[in-house]
């Protein structure tokens, strides 16, 4: 492995690991390999020096959105100069879906430029591909069952978005303005990293995600996504979800409240009864959380 290839590999892996929690990013190997990989990356994070770091080729998988589905990756020693091995796997997807997604991965690999680090871009592309109607209808029957279950219920979705940074005033305005337009509530923290937490009707939150991802980011990912069904009795209408959300998040009107520190966000999430979601997504244990205040 040349020094430049190794440097690029370690930089990309460090970024990926910072973006996903332990349930979303998993090493694939025997215990010795896992120990060596983690040790090497820890040393790199401290020194940013790859000299003397010799390990077997990295192999890992990243969780996708629908069920137990995974994006699997093997990085040969000469990656990114050499082409990586990537494939989709799932215990629940049909053979047709499995074939279509792996063909899409192959297509993206063929479009890749030599020497380009591409793992996160392909992962994001496959996540978007999974949301296409033909794929979604086959893979997410649970959502359609929900829609048929009751005319007097609505689905609430809450997400925590992590970005490498959130500094641009224009992006910060978009974060707040789009939340107001879509009737969703939440909090944000600018700086390094950027944190955006919102809650509202499922479709509106998904629209919000799409709008944010259309902006140019160094890195952006959904660290946590939760949903729940709220049942009403007639004649209540779906917009009554606002009563439910505003009580939880302590804000009368839709929109995003911006806070300057992680401790403020942590405190607000605790007040909203969403502390576990926040701590898990940010990889913070409760002892560390106390040190933020």
Automatic annotation (TrEMBL):
Pfam family, any one: Prp3_C
PROSITE patterns tied to this protein: RWD
Domain RWD: 11-133
PANTHER family in the record: RWD DOMAIN CONTAINING PROTEIN 2, RWD DOMAIN-CONTAINING PROTEIN 2B-RELATED
Protein name per UniProt: RWD domain-containing protein 2B
UniProt organism field: Gigaspora margarita
């Amino acid at each position: 492995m040349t020094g430049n290839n190794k440097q690029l590999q370690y930089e990309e892996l460090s970024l990926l690991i910072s973006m996903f929690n332990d349930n979303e990013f998993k090493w694939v190997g025997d215990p010795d390999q896992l120990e060596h990989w983690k040790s090497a990356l820890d040393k790199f994070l401290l020194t940013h020096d790859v000299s003397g770091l010799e390990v077997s080729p990295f192999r890992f998988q990243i969780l996708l959105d629908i069920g137990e589905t995974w994006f699997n990756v093997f990085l040969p020693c000469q990656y990114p100069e050499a082409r990586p091995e990537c494939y989709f796997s799932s215990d629940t997807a049909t053979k047709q879906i499995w074939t279509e997604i792996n063909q899409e991965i192959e297509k993206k690999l063929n479009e890749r430029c030599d020497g380009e680090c591409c793992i996160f871009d392909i992962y994001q592309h496959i996540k978007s591909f999974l949301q296409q109607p033909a794929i979604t209808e086959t893979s997410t029957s649970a959502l359609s069952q929900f829609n048929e279950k009751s005319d007097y219920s609505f689905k609430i979705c809450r997400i925590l978005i992590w970005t490498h940074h959130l500094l641009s005033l224009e992006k910060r305005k978009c974060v707040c303005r789009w939340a107001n337009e879509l009737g969703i509530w939440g909090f944000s923290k600018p700086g390094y990293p950027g944190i955006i937490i919102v809650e509202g009707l499922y479709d509106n939150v998904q629209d919000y995600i799409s709008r944010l991802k259309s902006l140019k980011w160094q890195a952006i990912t959904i660290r946590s996504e939760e949903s729940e069904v709220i049942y009403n009795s007639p004649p209540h209408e779906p917009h009554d979800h606002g009563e439910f959300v505003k009580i939880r998040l302590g804000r009368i009107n839709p929109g995003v409240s911006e806070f300057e520190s992680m401790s403020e966000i942590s405190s607000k999430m605790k007040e909203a009864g969403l502390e576990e979601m926040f701590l898990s997504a940010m990889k913070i244990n409760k002892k560390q959380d106390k040190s933020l205040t």
